[in-house]
Amino acid sequence: MTTPLSGPAATHASARTSPPGAVRTATEPAITATGLAKSYGDKVVLDGIDLHVPEGTVFALLGPNGAGKTTTVQILSTLVPADAGEARLAGHDLVGEADAVRRAIGVTGQFSAVDNLLTAEENLLLMADLHHLSRREGRRRATELLRRFDLTEAATGPAATFSGGMRRKLDLAMTLVGDPRVIFLDEPTTGLDPRSRRTMWDIIRGLVDDRGVTIFLTTQYLEEADQLADRIAVLDGGHLVAEGTAEELKRRIPGGHIRLRFADPGRLESAAALFTATKRDDEALTLHIPSDGSVPTLRAVLDILDGASVEADELTIHTPDLDDVFLTLTGSAR
Is it the case that residue 19 has pLDDT exceeding 50? Predict the structure, then answer.
């Protein structure tokens, strides 16, 4: 990407959007990519991945360190060229219409691009200048974003004094000055405390629900993907090894079960005789029955127990979570 900018503001200003009110194509996906590949020397970082991200959704890309998540963001945001493959963002070809792509996207990287020597308001006004907004429009957007991100009271304070959560909010607010249609968030809550992380989740979800933007999210926090993402892809060793909704991915992983606890060994014995492929614990008086976590499966188990007049004291359901998905599908488990 060619740009005259350098320093903290460059990350944000690399993505200027089309004017407010421009016609937006609702039928075309926000992001499509086919066969994206990238190597650095002998190291293959991406090995021909395909992506399809509908407009107005949150798409999460998961993977261990070195899986290629940040490289994917860098390619799609025009920061580095792909070795092979093609992509379209917001209706524009990644290579042939790179300037149009930059006008349609915003990027918030792993490390804050806030200028510590400026106040929150000055950081936003700087971004407005870089987006060539009029002074009046720049001040209007800065005021609106300070309010939206609950930074009005801190607007005139130096960014160097901000907490981690405040800096990340300002960082994201700076990305929004250009009114992007697609926003790349590369591990946006790294280092935040749980309360600040949840505040960021609310803000991110609000951007989709209220403004209709598309979020491309990379994260190491599996709960974050579970909470935010409409669809999740798992990247490992340069390959996409799985994609789907959180629930679809969880159902692909074995290990779900219904746990029954009984009052005495006799009832445990009677129940064990009713089911096959179970795991029992005579000391804890529990029986584990394989389950996909669905209501029909649970109903069938209860019907079998009821038909045999066997009563369980306690029933709990365990379904795989995204931790199980991650560990099963990526190199961390091998």
Answer: no
